[in-house]
C-alpha cells in the first residue's frame, strides 16, 4: 500500500479535547462525555455513510490564559487529523464512549462550518502523510536530527525493553523519519500541556526538533537522577516511581484520570496479534485470501502499534478474519412449509407468491441458486420488502437489506481501495460481515433509485454482483481478493422499471406487485397489521375492540394509497392513543368493574377514530361536491406510487384569450391540455357549440388540476381535459361517478395508455362507478381482480365522440353523421 497520494478531507468533524494533545503517530484513548463530542460520534462514526467518516480532527482547547469573555476556552488553531481505530461505549452509569484514535498529521483549522450539534471545520493539511527523505543539504538540520536520534536512543535504553512498544521503537529508531521520531518521542515523555502544544504547533522539522529535544533531555536527566537516588521524592518534576517505570510511555494514571485521556496500553499487543492469527485460522479462508491475510498480519507485526498504517492494516486483517468465507447457515427448504409461511405472513399477492414458490421449487430440484434474480416491482408499501424477509425465514437463512436509494457511487457497492484514507469495504461485503454467513438472502431495495455520480456508476458494479457467472469471483476494492457471492440469494425491489438501467433489467426477472383493493386492505388491516401493532404497543386483544366499520373508515377516509404503509401508521397512532389510556388506568380499573361495567375494552368506534386522528383526510363528499358541475371531469393517472384519481376543473372568464394551466404539470400534460383545447375549437360546431376565435379572444381559460403538490405528467389526461372543456362550454355536467383516461389526438381519436390496472383500482378506491377506457386497453382489464370488476362498468372507446356519449347525463348530441366521423378516423 503506498501512501504517497494520501491527503485528508478538506472538511472534517472535530473532537475537542481538554488539557491534552494528540501528536501524529501516537495513539490515544479518549473518553467522550460532552454532548457535542457524543453527537459527532453518533452521527459520523456509528452511522458510517461516507467513506471518510473514520477520519476526525482532534483539536485541543486553548490553555486557560486564553479564556474568552464568556469564560470558555477557544479552540487551538492547530489540530491533529486522526483515524478512529475503535469506538467502545457504555450506557451506565451514564452514556459515554471511548475512542481509540491514532494521529495522522497536523492541520490548521481555517474556519468552522458547523457548530451544532457538533463541530465541523474546514482544515488545511500541514504535514505530509508520507514524509520524503530528510533534506541532507541542510547541514544544521542534519546535525540536529543526529543529536535527536542519539538522545532518543539514550532514552529508549533507559526504558523497560520488556514493553513491546519500547522494544519496537528501539528497533525502528534508525529507519523512522525524523518527523515522526520527533512527534513520537514528544508524545512519550512527561511534558506539560503547553509544551506539547508547542510541539504540535511546530510544523517545520527543525522547529519541531528544537521544541522536543529539550523535553527528551529533561526526561533523560530526570531518569538518571532517579537512578542515582531512587528515594528522592522531592525532585518531583523528573520523578518516575519504580513501579511506574513503563509508565514513562504513558502519562501517569492520575494525570489521565484527571484529563480523561490516556495513551494506548500496548503490553497485551502481542496477545492481540496472536488472537488475530487464531481468528484468521478459524475463519478457514480460501488459499488465495489466506495468503494475503497472513502477509498483512506479518506486516502488522513489524509495524509500530502507534503508526497510522498499523491501525489501517489491523482493521483490514480483522475484516478478513470476520468474513464468512466458509460459514453457511443450514438451509431448510420445504415447499409446503414455504407456502404456509408466505400465506401466513401476507394476504393476497397470489401471483407473487406463486412465482416465488416456483422459483424455490426449481432451486430445490436443481440444488443450486443459479438463475435469474427476482425483482419485485410495485408501489411503496405493498409488501415487497416483507416478502423478501419471509423468504429468508422459510429458507432458514439470514436476511440483510441494502437500501440503494440515492446511491450514486460505485464504491458503495464495490468498496474503496485501501490507499484512500478511511477506506471501507462496499455494502455487500459489509452486509456479509454483519450476517456472518455466506448464504443470506440479500434484498437490494429500491434498485430503481440508483444514480450515476462523478465516482462511477453503481449500477455497473451491481451487474457483476448479480451475474451468477461472475459473482463467484466478486472483488471488492477494499478486500482486493475475490469473494464467492454465488451462495447469496439476491432479491431486488423497485417502484418502477423505467429508471432501471437496461443491462441490469436484463439480468432480473420482474414480478409485478399491484396495489390492493379496498377489500384486500380491510383483510390485511384486520388480520396482519392490527395484531402486529397491538403487539408492538404492548396491548392485549381484550383491552381494545376495533369494529370493522372503523377499519373501513380508516381505509377509505384516512388513506388513499396503493399499499398499506400509511394504513399501518394510522393503526399505530390509534394503538398509541389506547396505550396511553390503558397506562393511565389504575391497576384496579383493568380488572374491576366500575358500576357494573369494566373500563376495558376500549372501543374504537368511528367517533373515537375521528377524535384521535382528526377529521377525515379524504372524504368522497369533497370529491363529489365538485363533481356534477359544468367544467369538472375525473381522470385517472398513473404514478410510481400507484393509480390516482385526477380531478380536472376548467373555468372561463372574461379576459384576453389566455390559457392558464395550474397544478404542477409536466410538459407532456401541458401539451395535452393545448391539444384538447384545439380539438374542442375545431369540432365545437359538430356538437352545436359556438366556440369561435372571437369568443376565445375575449375569454381566459383556466384549467386546474387539484392536489398541486403532486407532480403530474403524461398524455393520459387528454380525454379528461377535452371532456371538461366540452362540459364547460356546453354548460352540461358530466356524470358524477364517471372516470376516464386516454390520450387524445387533434382529430379526437382516443389512443391507449399505460398503468390501466392501477388506474382502475384507484377509481374503485375513490368509489366511482364507471370507467371510460381506450378500446385498445380492453385487454389490460384481465389483470383487474374480479371483485373490483364487478363493482364497475367499463366503456371502451376509440373516439372522443363515444366518450362524450358515455360521460354526459343522457348522452351528448352530435351534429356530425357517423359516416363523417368514420372518414375522419380513416384519414389518420
Ligand atoms: N399482503 C400483505 N399482507 C400482510 N402485510 C402486508 C401485506 N402487504 C404489505 N404488508 C405490510 O405492510 C408494511 C409495508 O410493507 P413493505 O415495507 O414490505 O413495503 P414495500 O413494498 O417494500 O415498500 P417500499 O417500496 O417503500 O420499500 C409491512 O409491515 C408489511 O408487513
Structure, described:
The protein has 30 helices and 27 strands. By secondary structure, the chain is an alpha/beta fold. The chain folds into six domains: 115 residues, LON domain-like (Archaeosine Trna-guanine Transglycosylase, Chain: A, domain 4, Roll); 125 residues, no CATH class; 54 residues, no CATH class; 146 residues, P-loop containing nucleotide triphosphate hydrolases (Rossmann fold), CATH 3.40.50.300; 96 residues, Helicase, Ruva Protein, domain 3; 208 residues, Ribosomal Protein S5, domain 2. α8 packs parallel to α10 and α24 packs across α26. It is elongated. The site of adenosine-5'-triphosphate (ATP) has 20 residues, from α13, α18 and α20. One of its GO terms (molecular function) is ATP-dependent peptidase activity. Its EC number is 3.4.21.-.
Amino acid at each position: 500500500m503506498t501512501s504517497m497520494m494520501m491527503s485528508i478531507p478538506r472538511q472534517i468533524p472535530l473532537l475537542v479535547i481538554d488539557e491534552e494533545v494528540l501528536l501524529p503517530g501516537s495513539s490515544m484513548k479518549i473518553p467522550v462525555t460532552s454532548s457535542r463530542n457524543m453527537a459527532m460520534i453518533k452521527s459520523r462514526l456509528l452511522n458510517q455513510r461516507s467513506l471518510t467518516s473514520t477520519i476526525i480532527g482532534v483539536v485541543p482547547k486553548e490553555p486557560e490564559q486564553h479564556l474568552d469573555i464568556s469564560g470558555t476556552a477557544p479552540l487551538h488553531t492547530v489540530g491533529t487529523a486522526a483515524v478512529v481505530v475503535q469506538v467502545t461505549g457504555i450506557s451506565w452509569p451514564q452514556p459515554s464512549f471511548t475512542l481509540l484514535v491514532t494521529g495522522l498529521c497536523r492541520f490548521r483549522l481555517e474556519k468552522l462550518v458547523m457548530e451544532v450539534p457538533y463541530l465541523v471545520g474546514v482544515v488545511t493539511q500541514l504535514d505530509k502523510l508520507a514524509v520524503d527523505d530528510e533534506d541532507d543539504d541542510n547541514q544544521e538540520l542534519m546535525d540536529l536530527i543526529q543529536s535527536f536520534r542519539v538522545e532518543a536512543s539514550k532514552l529508549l535504553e533507559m526504558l523497560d525493553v520488556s514493553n513491546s512498544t519500547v522494544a519496537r521503537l528501539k528497533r525502528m529508531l534508525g529507519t523512522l523519519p525524523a518527523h515522526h521520531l520527533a512527534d513520537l518521542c514528544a508524545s512519550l515523555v512527561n511534558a506539560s500541556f503547553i509544551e506539547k502544544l508547542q510541539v504540535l504547533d511546530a510544523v517545520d522539522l527543525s522547529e519541531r526538533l528544537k521544541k522536543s529535544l529539550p523535553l527528551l533531555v529533561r526526561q533523560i536527566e530526570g531518569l538518571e537522577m532517579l537512578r542515582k537516588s531512587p528515594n528522592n521524592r522531592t525532585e518531583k518534576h523528573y520523578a518516575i516511581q519504580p513501579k511506574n517505570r513503563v509508565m514513562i510511555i504513558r502519562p501517569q494514571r492520575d494525570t489521565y484520570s484527571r484529563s480523561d485521556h490516556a495513551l494506548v496500553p500496548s503490553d497485551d499487543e502481542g496477545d492481540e496479534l496472536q488472537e488475530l492469527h487464531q481468528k484468521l485460522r478459524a475463519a478457514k479462508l480460501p488459499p488465495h485470501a489466506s495468503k494475503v491475510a497472513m502477509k498483512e498480519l506479518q506486516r502488522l507485526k513489524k509495524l509500530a502499534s502507534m503508526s497510522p498504517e498499523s491501525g489501517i492494516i489491523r482493521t483490514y486483517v480483522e475484516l478478513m478474519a470476520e468474513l464468512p468465507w466458509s460459514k453457511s447457515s443450514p438451509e431448510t427448504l420445504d415447499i409446503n412449509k414455504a407456502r404456509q409461511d408466505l400465506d401466513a405472513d401476507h394476504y393476497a399477492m397470489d401471483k407473487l407468491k406463486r412465482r416465488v414458490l416456483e422459483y424455490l421449487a426449481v432451486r430445490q430440484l436443481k440444488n443450486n441458486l443459479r438463475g435469474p434474480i427476482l425483482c419485485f416491482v410495485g408501489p411503496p408499501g405493498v409488501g415487497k420488502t416483507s416478502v423478501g424477509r419471509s423468504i429468508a425465514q422459510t429458507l432458514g437463512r439470514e436476511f440483510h437489506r441494502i437500501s440503494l436509494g440515492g446511491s450514486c457511487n460505485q464504491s458503495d457497492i464495490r468498496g474503496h481501495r485501501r490507499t484512500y484514507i478511511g477506506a471501507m469495504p462496499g455494502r455487500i461485503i459489509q452486509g456479509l460481515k454483519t450476517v456472518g454467513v455466506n448464504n443470506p438472502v440479500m434484498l437490494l431495495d429500491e434498485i430503481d433509485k440508483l444514480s450515476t455520480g462523478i465516482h462511477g456508476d453503481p449500477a455497473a458494479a451491481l451487474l457483476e454482483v448479480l451475474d451468477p457467472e461472475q459473482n463467484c469471483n466478486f472483488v471488492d476494492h477494499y478486500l482486493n481478493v475475490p469473494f464467492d457471492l454465488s451462495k447469496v440469494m439476491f432479491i431486488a425491489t423497485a417502484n418502477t422499471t423505467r429508471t432501471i438501467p437496461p443491462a441490469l433489467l436484463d439480468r432480473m426477472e420482474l414480478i409485478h406487485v399491484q396495489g390492493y383493493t379496498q377489500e384486500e386492505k380491510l383483510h390485511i388491516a384486520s388480520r396482519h397489521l392490527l395484531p402486529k401493532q397491538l403487539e408492538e404497543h404492548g396491548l392485549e386483544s381484550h383491552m381494545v375492540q376495533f369494529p370493522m366499520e372503523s377499519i373501513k373508515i380508516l381505509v377509505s377516509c384516512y388513506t388513499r394509497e396503493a399499499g398499506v404503509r400509511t394504513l399501518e401508521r394510522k393503526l399505530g397512532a390509534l394503538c398509541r392513543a389506547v396505550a396511553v389510556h390503558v397506562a393511565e388506568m389504575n391497576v384496579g380499573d383493568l380488572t374491576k368493574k366500575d358500576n357494573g361495567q369494566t373500563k376495558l375494552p376500549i372501543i374504537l368506534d368511528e367517533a373515537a377514530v375521528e377524535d384521535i386522528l382528526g377529521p377525515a383526510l379524504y372524504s368522497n363528499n369533497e370529491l363529489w361536491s365538485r363533481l356534477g358541475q359544468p367544467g369538472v371531469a375525473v381522470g385517472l393517472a398513473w404514478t410510481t406510487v400507484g393509480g390516482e384519481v385526477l380531478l380536472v376543473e376548467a373555468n372561463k372568464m372574461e379576459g384576453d384569450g389566455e390559457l392558464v394551466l395550474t397544478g404542477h404539470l409536466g410538459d407532456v400534460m401541458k401539451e395535452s391540455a393545448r391539444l384538447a383545447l384545439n380539438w374542442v375549437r375545431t369540432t365545437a360546431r359538430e356538437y352545436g357549440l359556438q366556440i369561435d376565435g372571437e369568443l376565445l379572444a375575449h375569454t381566459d381559460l383556466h384549467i386546474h388540476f387539484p392536489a398541486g403538490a403532486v407532480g403530474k405528467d403524461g398524455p393520459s389526461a387528454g380525454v379528461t381535459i377535452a371532456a371538461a372543456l366540452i362540459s364547460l362550454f356546453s354548460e352540461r355536467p358530466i356524470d358524477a361517478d364517471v372516470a376516464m383516461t386516454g390520450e387524445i389526438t387533434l382529430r379526437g381519436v382516443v389512443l391507449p395508455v399505460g398503468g390501466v390496472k392501477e388506474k382502475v383500482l384507484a377509481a374503485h378506491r375513490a368509489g366511482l362507478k364507471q370507467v371510460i377506457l381506450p378500446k385498445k386497453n380492453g385487454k389490460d382489464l384481465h389483470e383487474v381482480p374480479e371483485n373490483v370488476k364487478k363493482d364497475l362498468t367499463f366503456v371502451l372507446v376509440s373516439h372522443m365522440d363515444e366518450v362524450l356519449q358515455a360521460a354526459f347525463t343522457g348522452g351528448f348530441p352530435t351534429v356530425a353523421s357517423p359516416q363523417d366521423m368514420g372518414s375522419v378516423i380513416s384519414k389518420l
